Description:
With 275 residues, the protein is of the alpha/beta class. The protein has one domain: 4-Layer Sandwich (Nitrilase/N-carbamoyl-D-aminoacid amidohydrolase), CATH 3.60.110. 27% of the residues lie in helices and 28% in strands. It contains six helices and 17 strands. Helix 1 packs parallel to helix 3.
Amino acid sequence: MLRVAAIQYCASDNAKDTLAHIQPLIAEAASRATLVTLPECASYLSASREQLATHAEWEDDSYSQNWLADQARQLGTWLLAGSLMIRRRDNHKLVNRSLLFGPDGGLVASYDKIHMFDADVGDHKSYRESASFTAGSTPVIAMIGDVPVGLSICYDVRFPHLYRQLALAGAKLLLVPAAFTAISGKAHWHILLRARAIETGCFIVAPAQSGTHADGRQTYGHSLIISPWGEIIADAGDGDAVISADLDLAAVAKARQAIPSLTTNPAIEATRFIS
């Protein structure tokens, strides 16, 4: 059994302000759960690309990372920073990085977002994540106690092969922190996440941003906890919220035995068409 919590809020464009706002939410979540999860852009969501370039935190000198590590240590909880906007020291490039801290505040795992959100969803904004960030290349599984957990971020959810790979590598829980736009969220959020759970037979915890941000974007909210059978265990709706649930990991094996799609060869045989 693993107790999990997902925190939902609207990040400002100032890390210290956002972190001060969410401190009581983290404390509430930690009182309920072993694993506390925050959404993508956990400490701030920039008002512009120019501000992002100025405010991105160095990977070896990140106020947000240090603050969150300290929260994990003080509260004695596992804590996922859904993502931070990090500048690498080796090449000075930006990455959208998810960080998992242990109960002692130590960094257990990190994952750089693989799939860049380059899209025009119909909200009069053009999203070009690849213009600011360098894509990661390596899927990551971390251990929370004896539970293998697959890390991902937001737009990754549209690429089912990543989640199949994580499940085949042993993941029983998939984390999908997000800042999903309101328009695409209304159309696709629940469907995509339920599909990833069903396809992999994994639990999913998806903490999300909710509200109107400094750059004008509106995020969808509806942080979710989903069973391996695709059932919605908890839905945060709109606004600030903490949702939690006890995950019975035996449900993973049960779902995979019922629908053994992970053991089926995914290769599609070529079909010959006769004209």
